[in-house]
Amino acid sequence: MPIRGDVRLVDGAQNGRGRVEIYHDNQWGTICDDTWDNSDAQVVCRQLSFGTTNARGYTAINPGSGPIHLDGTYCFGTEYRLDSCSHSSWGQHDCSHSEDAAVECDINEGDVRLVDGSTPNQGRVEIYHNYQWGTVCDDRWDDSDARVVCRQLGYSGDVGEARSGGTYGQGSDPIYLDEVGCSGYESRLEYCSHNVWGVEDCSHSEDAGVYCYDNNYNDLEGDVRLVDGYSLDEGRVEIFHEGQWGTVCDDSWDDSDARVVCQQLGYSGDVGVARSGGTYGQGSDPIYLDEVGCSGYETRLEFCSHAGWGIEDCSHSEDAGVQCRSPATSSRVVGIMSFVGVSLSLLTLFALVAVCYTCSQRKPVVIPTSSVQVPLSTISSHPAANNTPAAPTSNGMISVPT
Asked: List the disulfide bonds (predicted).
């Protein structure tokens, strides 16, 4: 399901070319070509995961119909989404469909794109080969492969998390790559080791996906984040609305809501545990959502039922939180616990060795002290002699230790 600000290309003669349409108020509409240029085209192509080097803006050959959503669009060319560029108010224009804007993007052999993600920086990986897009099998798919995909798409830094098991839905044939093995430093996915193109033993339930993190990524309406958690996989839920982050009240907050948050953040599988009562500390105003009611299958938290933006009867002591559990996180925890266990076992072994070594040493020999011969008559005159008889020696003397 598209979200506000999504774009698509229509009536193009080939992939990566066509009239630009943008989604707003639950309806696709066109864009007027006033001020439309190559910088605007670069943003559209980037949002659609196409190449941008030679992106070109022009007037559509085939006019569209319906609403004209945008006019006076002005992009720098570095934005990630077209609705992040400056433009006139939605629906305000002085154009006809004969002025509909279009773009032509770069598409080359081996190009990649992300499809069906809830945001442009995540989705199912598809690669272009023989003039057709196809999917990648998740056998051996890991973060090293994901980093290469993100780098090829223009993300800066060592970003990229692998998603597997058809996290972003199932694509359609062909399945082009299987057994991909990247070191993580390649510039393009096609440069990584893999089976021969088209040689695979997979189904689309194994379609590989990627989640690209980027510190420069623009916050979008309805985006969510986790704040002040004890790990990266948990925290207070905050949602972005009208240019500002705000919290969510925990009234009716449950695991179904938590699952939607985790899915929106790119976690795979049916993961998500709800936390309430300001578990991760109290946020600051505004409190955006209350009485959230998700079925658990929505792709974004904003699509769930709620009381309405800003309508609430809560304090920040009721800020909702989420704990997202993933296979990757579990592996890290298990690894740490294994390391601790091995360390304790080694310490115990060293202690036993030390004890055994100490016990095996010979005890020091006790040398008897010399004795002084004392006359028997002297000892017998002592009062204690009446209670403790002394054993006389053969010469009438007893031995008294000195």
From this structure: 75-85, 182-192, 294-304
